[in-house]
Design a protein that fits this description.
The protein is α/β, with parallel strands linked by helices. The protein has a single domain, classed as P-loop containing nucleotide triphosphate hydrolases (Rossmann fold), CATH 3.40.50. It is 31% helix and 19% strand. The two termini are 18 Å apart. About 6% of the residues have low confidence. Strand 6, helix 5 and strand 7 form a beta-alpha-beta unit.
Length: 221
């Protein structure tokens, strides 16, 4: 019997989230289907999309690889700015995961960085099948100014988003709680922000099954 699950980290009982459905979804074939360095190159697609966005070096590609249980689905690097286009990964005909370029610091020219930031904004403004944005925040550093800028943009566009803490294996429980408390205090200012913060680690795999369950809610039956 499929039952609703409780977030193993936060302890909250989140209605409609099933780790079983998440596991089943992510057992299916996941393939790279398109890359877009310009908004004109973004594929036309009616399949539901979940986008992953965050500061450079926040761990987006590592999280995607861990979620899909593939070592090199998304390219990873210790050098910030590795992802330089919108990358679309499709799980059969169920859902598409979109890896967006990291914003903030990157080893690239100012013109290149500005171009990536505009590409992110253009994508967020005009994607009707975008169901939710996973806003990744490094648990060691918390919410930075450019994170808040993206949050304000998502609020303005009425795009639902949820904060996913990454690299929790590198942060203390006390540090994580402090960051979560700060985010909760910010929630009243951000209308499109989902109130729950999800804690994950690509190393220990903590929180990944729960995040799979969250994503599965939006998948095509």
């Amino acid at each position: 019997m499929d039952i609703e699950t409780t977030n193993p980290v936060s302890g909250r009982n989140d209605t409609g989230i099933s780790e079983k459905k998440g596991k089943e979804l992510f057992k299916k074939t996941c393939e790279f289907v398109a890359g877009a360095a310009k908004i004109e190159a973004v594929p036309i697609n009616k399949i539901p999309e979940i986008a992953f966005v965050g500061r450079s070096n926040v761990g987006k590609s590592s999280l995607l690889n861990s979620l899909t249980q593939r070592k090199s689905l998304a390219r990873t690097s210790k050098t910030p700015g590795c992802t330089r286009q919108l990358n679309f990964f499709q799980i059969e005909d169920k859902i598409t995961l979109v890896d967006l370029p990291g914003y903030g610091y990157a080893r690239a020219s100012r013109k290149e960085v500005e171009g990536w930031n505009e590409l992110i904004k253009d994508y967020l403004r005009g994607r009707p099948n975008l169901k939710q944005v996973c806003l990744l925040i490094d648990s060691r550093h918390g919410v930075k100014k450019n994170d808040e800028e993206i949050m304000s943009l998502l609020d303005e566009l009425a795009v639902s988003y949820q904060i996913i803490l990454t690299k929790t294996d590198k942060q203390s429980k006390k540090g994580i709680e402090e960051i979560k408390n700060k985010i909760e205090n910010m929630a009243e200012k951000h209308a499109a922000l989902h109130p729950e913060v999800v804690e994950t680690s690509s190393v220990s795999h903590d929180g990944l099954n729960y995040l799979r369950g969250i994503i599965a809610r939006f998948a095509t039956p």
